[in-house]
């Protein structure tokens, strides 16, 4: 894997919202945090919510207070969008506040060149934004047919862990977010950094 040296710290914004899936969020988050340990100054990781109010994770097992809200967030170089359970996804697709405020924030930065990185059903959340149009995309196996139905302008890929389309990276279910984070860090920081993170994780990558 070719190493691409970054000349500046990259801001990585992790979008959080009520009922977010914990491993979707924390898996990639920890990968980027470890990358910054291995290569100091490579990534600045933070969470972003619609407001500064705490959000409840899936099944209300914990609450998380965002680092920033969408008004105060630093300009992100990467936005990571973790998923939630399918019933919640469908509710968010009909939630005008979520669509018009939160996802408009994502779309704004997407239009300015920010990398959009979805984990699991996070790609499905973008179905009403146009961000996925004309891209190869994927999601959790349970929602592949639904993703295809909602995104007729896209090509849904099956039996893959992640799909890299340059500015857009989508992943399959839950742990695939870890694999895609390792992959992206490999592109940006080199395979040696990835190998060190994998060793720290004691992780058998499927990538």
Q: Helical segment tally?
A: 7
Strand content: 15-25%
Order of helices and strands: EHEEEEEHHEHEHEEEHH
Rg from Cα: 16 Å
**Termini Cα gap:** 13 Å
List how many beta strands DSSP finds.
Answer: 11
Strand order of the largest sheet: 5-2-1-6-7-11-10
Structure classification:
alpha/beta
* Mean pLDDT, all residues: 95
Q: Pick out the low-confidence regions.
A: 1-6
- Relative helix content: 25-40%
Inertia-based shape: globular
Largest sheet: 7 strands, mixed
What keyword list fits this structure?
globular; 7-stranded mixed sheet; 207 residues; alpha/beta; 11 strands
Verbal overview:
With 207 residues, the protein is α/β, with parallel strands linked by helices. It contains 7 helices and 11 strands. The chain has helices at residues 22-38, 86-93, 96-111, 122-125, 144-150, 176-189, 191-201; strands spanning 10-15, 43-49, 55-56, 63-64, 68-69, 78-81, 115-118, 136-137, 155-156, 162-164, 168-171. The protein has a 7-stranded mixed sheet with strand order 5-2-1-6-7-11-10, with helices on both faces. Strands 3-4 form a two-stranded antiparallel ribbon. Helix 5 (144-150) links the parallel strand 8 (136-137) and strand 9 (155-156). Helix 1 (22-38) crosses helix 7. It starts with 9 loop residues before the first strand and ends in a 6-residue tail after the last helix. The model is unreliable at 1-6 (pLDDT under 50).
